[in-house]
Amino acid sequence: MNRRDALRLLAAGATLPLTPRSLLAFQEARKLLLSEAVPHTLNAHQFATVRTMAELILPKTDTPGATDVGTAEFIDLILAEWYSVEERDIFLKGISDVDARTRDLFGKDFVEASTEQQQQILVALGERMLEETDEARNHVRRTRGRKSELEKSFYPMLRRLTLTAYYTSEAGATAELHFQIVPGSFEPCIPVTDGSTTKEAS
After folding, report:
1. How far is it, in rounded angstroms, from Cα 180 to Cα 199?
2. What share of the chain has pLDDT > 90, as a percent?
3. Would the pLDDT of 2 be above 70?
4. Does a structural domain hold residue 115?
5. How many domains does the structure of the chain reveal?
6. Which among 98, 141, 151, 172 would be 20 to 30 A from 23, CA to CA?
7. What is the distance between the alpha carbons of residues 44 and 16, in angstroms, rounded to a whole number?
8. pLDDT, mean of residues 120-136
9. Lowest mean pLDDT: which of 115-119, 127-131, 183-187?
């Protein structure tokens, strides 16, 4: 798997069915990309904001959280190497808007706010996302299936990337979805050479 194919696979992860073969491919792609030096899009403050928001969306409980599977690192990678300039600008502006909203309400940036205050911000963003979803459905009906602007909104982008990062990771797929990697195919007939022995399958 080359770097471009790995990026394409991970960027499309949210829309692909999770199968033993695809899960192994996701893991191979993540190892390839995250093990190499890559250009970064997010500065330290933006990275901390994304990591905090992702962990609030998928917190650590008895299963791993977003931070445990490197969600912020994954998002930074996709922003740097897969997203268009327009999409990156929308995402970075969204982070700034989150800070502006938090300062207006609480007088501090998002990462400096309390967990309760951060949750309040995410609830407001989620409510706006639901409103945008309804608007997008109406748009699709009016325009007979043409894409709406919902895909160009920060919070839906963040949620989609967070879920993709989490559920294409080994920990997310196995600990949360209880997905078990099993052989992709069954080979009933195995050639036996002279002098070899076989075990009867149980």
Report:
1. 25
2. 39
3. no
4. yes
5. 1
6. 151
7. 31
8. 87
9. 183-187
